[in-house]
Amino acid sequence: MRRIVDHILGNQILRQVALPFLIRGNPRDPVPFIALARQGEPVCWLPGINAWLVTGHSDVKALFGDSRITTDPRAYERYEAPKVDGAARWLAEMPFRTTPSNQDSLGRRLVLSALKPRAIERNEHRIGEVVEEFAVALRQREGVVDLLGEFTAPVSTIAIGRVLGVPPKSKDEARFRVLARQTTRGIQPFLSRAKRRASEAATVEIAEYILNLVEARRREPGDDLISDLVSASQSASPARSEDIVRVIAALIAAGSGTTGVSGARALRSLLLHPSQLSLLRSDRSLLGNAVQELLRYDNGLLLLPRYVLEGFEFRGRTLKKGQLVLVSPLGANRDPRVFPDPDRLDIRRDTRQALTFGYGAHYCPGANVALTEIRLMVAAAIDFIPPNARLLEDQIRWSRSKGLMAQIKSLPARFDR
Ligand code: HEM
Fold it and tell me: What domains appear along the chain, each with residue ranges and CATH number?
């Protein structure tokens, strides 16, 4: 036990983020703890981890737009740089992080290129192909199907590769899938030495692979996100290939696990609410809003870290320079002052105030990709999941090891046809 406690205290991500949930929470359903915090103290001090927890909708939204705090962990009074290069460092030191002094970062330029109507159409087509490749086998399947391992997780990894420009169904793609999975695994604090080494080796290999793709697109532009990034980075202040590689690496780290987990959690919510599933099956026009509601209800993202740049008063509390502030989009999305009866899944609900993808300058640049991916996953799944499918809730494998996401490692369901 002592070793576990030491490990937690010695690990930056766990110490910062996961502790409240390890001690008091439950990865299946962290909502009660967050609701308790919101009702008790909207800006609540967590003594064990020396952090503020902010859970109310208006407060979370206000902090998304507040330039006195930053997402850059280097402003944290206890910042320790990740010791090795890898996914954890890519996320910690994203070169395009939006900060008060860096509002027009490469990331923002990426958003502009990702929002171009042509790119949205292109992504929809490519992601649709990937979804279909995995859905086809599941249409006939009987017995136990792992909807995460056999569907949402591989779709998520391959889709981000195709959006970037990895050639479809190639040897490269098969390798990319393995490398992306091993690389993003490096974010997790609990890894055996062998897995940690494998993750580090994968990081080096994937970075080299992306660098080659970037150089190839410089010579000959294609119709993909890497080409868009290369051209966007040439127009204003030219970026070095290495900087673009880090942007892409961060996109892979931020964009491959998230949709796999969110997609699985969306399917779990639907299977746990059969009347909502039937409603969606009978009226496909509800799909777009259903996806927004499923993500509001449960997307797995628990907390986002912020660091105080200059001390200020907030809701009667004094936030000091260098302190950690944890804002909870899940808390905001379940705030009864904004979403009446917030713990009810209602695919007809008005979801426009949801903070699933953040807000303002921090709005997720991958939101379009994520929404397209989850919409296409859900649309395919409601076709291949037989009407009498049963979620095997007791057999779901949960993991507490990732601080920011409430992790789910499998989503078994029984298909009888
Ligand atoms: C359902 C899936 C997803 C959810 C719920 C989600 C949510 C979010 C949220 C809330 C933020 C803001 C973080 C903060 O303010 O600290 C964010 C940032 C980010 N997301 Fe996503 N995201 C998802 C999928 C994706 C995908 C598919 C990509 C890539 C294609 C992506 C790339 C990013 C990046 C690079 C950032 C950092 C932006 C910055 O700091 O300027 N995300 N995401």
Answer: 2-415 (1.10.630.10)
